[in-house]
Amino acid sequence: MVCYDQENVSFFYNMSKKNISERWQTKDYVMVSLGLLVCAFVIFANILVMLAIFMNRRFHYPIYYLLGNLAAADLFAGISYMHLMFHTGPWTIKLSVHQWFVRQGLIDTSLTASVINLMAIALERHQTIFTMQLHSKMTNHRVVLLIVGIWLIAIVLGLVPSMGWNCICDIQQCSNMAPLYSRSYLVFWAVLNLLTFTVMVAVYTRIFIYVRRKTHRMSQHTSQVKHKETVVNLMKTVVMILGCFVVCWTPGLVLLLLDGLCKSCDVLTFEKFFLVLAECNSFMNPIIYSYRDKDMRVTFKRILCFPCLGWQQKDEHSGVRFNTLEQERRRRVLQEAWVARKARDGDGAQTNGGPLVLKDAENMLDSTES
């Protein structure tokens, strides 16, 4: 068995008949420029999402921690793509085998982290929706362990090709799209991700059927309707994120599967197009967050306006802070109690201390919550 680990990357590209431009052409400049622009937006948008979840206590629940971790995976994808942009085109010829594996491993790790994180979100929603709860009772300690586990699995799968599952010692098994990857690894990776997508779609389909049946049986009490709308809206946001991920990544995974199974298939024609489509997914999630979640939009505005309005807001709103859903529920109960008292006592309730009673109760709440 002959191993070619001392060869450079161009040797494997020539074997797979994947051409590398030796000189910069117009299309190379356009691709790198657009790629860097998209990467910059991906990094900025996902940092904004992570800051919003960190700053707003309304989002301090397992589902939002997992959504924040998904934003971290997208942020890592943006960094990985930026690294790819600086090591593509004519720069590819100068790469060593180790550097090429690093370039591909970063992208593989970010995709794997996103897929596993979406699976974790699906399981979390399955657990909570079937009891018509808004948030899981999972402890913060378990959420942290889950997030650490997601990244450990993603890193290991990203390192698998460089640890031996490649074609350096079996040149006939090299793929066309990734000339140093073994075709068997591409088949394994593509099938694993496609199966994961299928399972997630099945889980969400089951959840939607259950929610549809359950909502027909619920009474028309105001609090129950409000709770139902909150659950369904959050569910729609998660499904939109999943749907966008599947649409953006499935074509590329199918192309990888064809590359692994069909040696004579022309997969290089659509390679760059599907790569751009996959990259677009990383900045779609923040758009979905801001479109679907009003609290997220408000938090985004607070963060973006802080540099110019921070001191003014500090003076004007020094007593204002984000509350958790439980605190909002308690405050709403007090308000409803006062409204009921006002309706019972008539207009005289306002002169009999109604607002003062509410104000005293709210002050007591503030002191216990702080």
Automatic annotation (TrEMBL):
Residues 45-289 form the G-protein coupled receptors family 1 profile domain. SMART domains: 7TM_GPCR_Srsx. The keyword Cell wall biogenesis/degradation does not apply. It is a multi-pass membrane protein. InterPro entries: GPCR_Rhodpsn, GPCR_Rhodpsn_7TM, LPA_rcpt, LPA_rcpt_EDG2. It is found in: Cell membrane; Cell surface; Endosome. One of its GO terms (molecular function) is lysophosphatidic acid receptor activity. The keyword Transport does not apply. Keywords: Cell membrane, Disulfide bond, Endosome, G-protein coupled receptor, Glycoprotein, Membrane, Receptor, Transducer, Transmembrane, Transmembrane helix. One of its GO terms (cellular component) is plasma membrane. PANTHER family: G-PROTEIN COUPLED RECEPTOR. This is Lysophosphatidic acid receptor 2b isoform X3. It comes from Cyprinus carpio (Common carp). The gene is lpar2b.
